[in-house]
Task: structure prediction
Amino acid sequence: MTTEACRDWRGALGAAALGVIDPVEEIGLRAHLDGCASCRAELRDLTAVAHALAAVPVTDVIAAPAEPSGTLGPRVLARVAHERDARHKRHVRRVAAGVGALAAVAAVIVALILVVGGGNSAPPATSVAMAGVPGAHATARLRSQAAGTAIDVKVTGLDPHRYYWLWLTGDDDHRMPAGTFTGSVQPADIRLMAAVPLDEARRIWITDEHDKVVLDAPIPAPA
Amino acid sequence: MAEFHPALETDDGVRAVYAAHGPELYRFALRSLGDRGLAEEAVQETFVRAWRAADRFDDELGSLRTWLFAIVRNVVIDLSRARAVRPGLSVADSGADDAFFVDEAFDRVLTSWQVEEALRMLSEEHRAALVEVHYKGRAYSDVALGLGVPVGTVKSRVYYALKAMRLALEELGWTRDD
Result:
C-alpha cells in the first residue's frame, strides 16, 4: 500500500533503479523497503526499465530520429493502390473468364496444337535503351516471368557514392520498384525484378536517392 | 469477397495509417537492416502485405500497430534472407546457427526500437531528465544547477520518467526479461 512515506522515497527509487543513488540515502531507502512490499515491487519494475534503457546507445538517444524520405508516403500509397487495382482487374478477368469458358477451352486446344507442333515457347522479352542525365546510359533487357518482369540492366556513368532505384510503370500509371543498386562509373550489370507483367509495363526509369529521375525509357506496347 | 480493414481500403485510410505508423515502421526496419533504401522497401512491402491480409486483422485481438509490426518483422526477415544480411548484425557475424542469430538479433533490435520510441513518447522534461542523468551520467546536483531547479525536482522527474517509460514500453509490446 502506498503511504505518505512512500511518496517521500520516490526520487530515491528512481536513483536506485538507475544505480546512481547516494550511499547515505540508500541506507534510509533500504530501511523503508524492508517494511514496504509495494515500494520493493516498484523498484523491481523501475530497475527492469533502467536495464532496457541500455539497449540504446547514448549517441542514438541524442541524435535526431531517423525519418523516411518524403517520397515514401506517396510510394506506399501507390503500391497499395496498384495492388487494389490489380485485384480489381483480376476480379474482372475472372468474370470474363467465366463468361467465355468455351472460348478458353478452344484456346487451350489451339495452344496444345502449337506446343505439340514445336511452337516457340520462350517467354516474351524486349530490350530498350535508356537516356537521361549527361554521361549516364543504360540498356535494359526485360523478360516476362511468372512473378513479374525480370530486368537485366547494363548501366554506365552513375555516381558510385550514391544508390539508385529502378522502377517500372504499369499501364495503370502506378510505379513499382524493381529494387536498388549502387552507382558505377564503369559499365555494371544489374539484375532486378518488378511485380509488373511485361505486357503491362509502359516505362522503365531510374531515380537517385532523392527520387530524381536520372535515366528513362518508354517500353513499347506489345504487338 | 473478403471484407477489408477500412483503414487500408481507401487512399485516405492508407495515408492516415502511414502518417501514424510509417515513420516508426521505417525506424524499426532501418535498425534491423541498416540501409535506408532497404528500410523504405520494407515499409512499402509491409503496407502491401497488410492490405492483402486486411481481412484477417481483428481489432479485438490487438492494435493495428501490433499487427503492422508483426508484418514488418516478417518482411525484414525475408529481405535479410534475400540479401544475406542478418538483421541488426553485420554479414561478418557468421558461423553460428541462423535461426538463433535471427531470433537473438531481433530481440535486441526490437528492444532498442521500443526504448527509442518510448523515449520519444515522454514529455520533454522527463526525457531531458533521463538523458542527462542516465545517458550522459551527470550528477543530479549538476543537472539541477543547469536547469535552475531544486535537486528534488530532478529526482522526481527521473522517477516519473521511468514510470512513464514503463507504460510507453508496455504499450509498444515490451516484456520484462526477469
About this structure: Chain A touches chain B through 46 residues (CB under 8 Å).
